[in-house]
Amino acid sequence: MIRFVLRRALAAIPIGVIVTLGVFALVFAMPGDPLRELAGDKPIPAAVMAAKRAQFHLDDPFIVQYLLSMKDILTGHFGTTFAGADIADQLRLRIPVTLKLTLLANAFQWTLGLFFGIYAGFKRNGWIDKSLLLATLVLLAVPGLVAYFAAQYLFGVELKWFPVSGVLEGFPRSYLLPALVIGVLGFAGLARLMRTSIVETVNADFVKTARAKGLGEQRVLWRHILPNALLPVVTFIGIDLAGMFGGAIITESIFNLPGLGQFMFQAIKFKEGGVVVLLSTLAFISFIVINLLVDLLYGVLDPRVRNV
Amino acid sequence: MGVALGLALVLASCGDGKSADSGSGGAKSEIIAIAADPLEYINPLNENGSPGIQVAMAMFAPLVTTDPNTGKLLNVMADSVTPDKTSQTWTIKLKPGNTFQNGQPLTAKDYVDSWNMTAEGSNAWKNNGFFSKIEGYDAMNPPTPDGATPKPTSVKALSGLKQVDDLTFTVKLKVPFSQFGLTLQYLGLAPLPEEVRKNPDAYKRKPIGNGPYKLAADWNAGDDIKLAKWDGYKGPNPPEADSITYRFIPNADTAYNEFLAGNVDFVDVPSTKVKSFKTDAPDQWVTSVSSGANYLVIPAWDARYKNPKLRHAFSMAIDRKAFADLVGLAEPAKGLVAPDMAGYRADACKYCDFDPTKAKQLLQEAGGFSGSVNINYNTTSATGQIFAEAIGNMLRQNLGLDVKYTGKQGSEITDLADNRKLDGLRFSGWGHDYPSIEDYLTPMFKSNGDANFSGYNNPALDAVLAKGDAEPDPEKAIAIYQQAEDIALEDMPLIPLYTKSNAYLHSNKIEPRVSKYTGVSALYATFK
Predict the structure, then answer these.
(1) Do B2 and A256 touch (CB under 8 A)?
(2) What CA–CA distance (Å, rounded) separates A68 from A110?
(3) CATH homologous superfamily of domain A89-270?
(4) Which residue of B has its CA nearest to A115?
(5) 8-state DSSP, A151
(6) What is the value of ipTM here, to two decimals?
(7) Range of the domain at B88
(8) Helices A127-141 and A173-202 sit at what angle, rounded to 10 degrees?
(9) Measured distance CA(A283)–CA(B119) in Å, rounded
(10) What are the ABC transmembrane type-1 domain coordinates in residue numbering (chain A) (predicted)?
C-alpha cells in the first residue's frame, strides 16, 4: 500500500512538470502586455514600466521566467501579485473559502444524487425515475451563468432567503445559495449514473446467488448490491470533486466569494503567469490526491483491485 | 462516505462565521459598493484611477479642488497658488494649522519629499508621469529606449522643487504651463507623512492621510474598508457622513443586485443595466453630465486614410444620434472635448452632422478608398462587437465601402497601435484628470502626447498648444486652445462619436452630490 502511494507520487512529478510548463506557456502566449492591463486606460511612464518589468522578471526569456516561478513555488516564496497583494496571505484567505464552497456543494450534490439515483434504480419506471430523467435533461440544458444570476435575484433580492453575495454572514449562510445551485445543477448526472449502476447490479448473477443462499434483503442490499454499484460512481465523484475548481471561477465571481476561483480569474486577466501556475499546481496536487484516495477507496469496496 | 466526510468538514468549520453588521455606528453612515477587485493598498501617489483614487479621496485632501457649485478653483490645503509672469515658476503656500491624522503638522517639506519619492522611477509609483513637467525630471528618469533596463541614477530630487519655508514651496516647470494650477487638484499629488515615506510598504494597509476620514478599524486583506470622520480635517465643505464603508464586489451585476436587495447605499449602474435601471430603482437614480468623450481612431500610419476629406466623409456617414441611442445614456459628440468643460463649443465640429450625400461627395473628392476598412473591437467588452458592426454598417451603406471586423483583447489592440502596426480603425475614449480643455487636447493631439492614440503629428497644432500653455489669462488661454481643437477637427485624427453619462443608484437614505462640474459623488452625499 505504501509502495503504491509512493509509486503514484513519483509518477506525478513528471506530469506536474508538463502541466505547469504547459499552463505557463499558455499564459505567456496570451496576447498583450501584462502591465498594460494593470495600468488601465491611462498611460504609464517608461521609467515606471521598466521598474515593474524588472520586479516581476518580465524581461527575462520564457524558460527563465518559468524556472523562477517554479523556484518561488517550491521554496514557498510566493511574493506579491502585480497589483501588490501578498500571495501567501491571499492563499490563506482564499483556500478555506473555496474548500467550504466545494465541500458544501458536493454534500448537496452527493446527497441528492445518491438518494434519487438509488431510489430510481430500485423503483424503475416509477414517477421518481421518470421525473429524474426529465429533470436531467432540463438541468443539463441550463447554462450555469443564467441559473446563478436567476437564483441570486429570486432568492437573494426578491425573497431575501439568502444573502445576495459575499461572505459577511459567514459559514454556512453565505455559502448555502451558491452551493445549492451547484448541487441542484450537478446532481442529475450523478443520479443517472447511480441508477444505471444499481439496475445492472440488481440483475447480476452474484446478487441472485446471494438471494438463493437465503440472505436477508437488508444484507443483500448493504453488503452485495451497494458496494458493487458504487464503484463507477466513486470514480465519477473523484473527477467531479477535482473539477469543481474550474466551476468556482464563475460561481465565486457571481456570488462574490473571495476564493481561489476569483484569484485565478484576476491572475488570468492580468496575465500573471506565476500566480496561474501556482494555482494550477494546487489544483493539480488536489487532483492527484483525490484520485489516489479514490483508488484506495476502490480497494476497500472491491477486493479484486486491492493494492498491496 | 463522501457525504459524511463533507458534512463533518462543514460542521468543523462552522465556528468562524461572522455575523452581518451594517457598517460601524454613527447616525449618518453609508455603504458604497465598488465594482472592482479589492484594493491591496491605499496610497494616492501610486494610484491613477478608480477605485484607488476614489477611496483615497475620502482619506486624503488635495491642494485645491473644483467648487461643485461654481466650477471655480477652491483652496483646500493650499492658501494660495501663484504663477510668476510667465507661468513657469509656481509658488504654493499652505494654510497653517493643518496636520496629518497622526498629529504631525502638514508642511511644505511633506509635499516636496512625497513628490520627489514619486518622481523616482525605481519606486514604480503610478503618478510618476505627472512630474515629467517639472524641471529635473529627466535627470531622475534618464530616457531609456523601449525594453531596455533604466540606468541607475544618483539623482534623488527634482531640481525644480524647492522648499522656501515651513509652509511655502516653489515648482519650476520645464516650460511655461498656464494650466498647472488646475492640475494641482489631482488627488494623486496628496502628501504622505514622514513615517510613511520612510517605509511605505509598512503602511500599505494603514494609510495616514490628511483628509476628512480615517480608518475606523483594522483593514486586512479581504475586509471592507471602514472609515470614520476625522475631526482634524479643516478643509472647506466637509462631507456629511459620520462613517463610510467601501465594499468591493468585483462583479458589477452582483453589486447591482446587492443594491436592489437593500444591502448597499450606492452603486454604479453597469453597462448591462443601462436600459433597465430606471424601472428597477425608480426615484433612486442619478446621472452625471458626462464622463469624458469617445472617438473612432484613424491610424496615421496607414496612407490610405491620410486625406482629411476622406476622414470627414467617414465622419459625416455616421448617424451619431442612432449610435448614441445604441450606446445608451449617450449624446452625439459635437467636438473633441467633453461638454462639461469650460471652453466646450456645441458647434465646434463642422463635419459631425449626418449627411450621406455630402459624405459620398467628399469621399469622391478624396479619390475613394482602396481595399476594405478594418474595424478593431475589444473582445473583453460586452458591447465591443455590437458597436463595431453599427459603425461598419453605416460606412458600408452610406459610402459603399467594404468593411471587415477584427476582435482582439483590449491590451493587444493598444500594444499594436503603440507599435504603429494596427490595421484599421478602433474605438477609444478619454476622461480628464483636471477640468481643462487642455487636458483633452495635449494628451491626444500633441505629437508627443501621453495618449496620442492615432499617432497624429502636426507642428502647427503643437505650436498653438504651446502658446496656450504660456498664456496666463485663463479666458485667453481657452480661446487659444479652441484654435488647437479647430486644427484637430480639420485634420480629424479622431472622429468624435459620443459623450456618455454615467448612472448611479442610491438608497432613500442619501442624496448623492450631483454637480455639473464635478459629477456624481457618494462621498459628499447629503442625508435625509
Answers:
(1) no
(2) 41
(3) MetI-like (1.10.3720.10)
(4) B3
(5) H
(6) 0.84
(7) 41-203
(8) 130
(9) 42
(10) 95-294
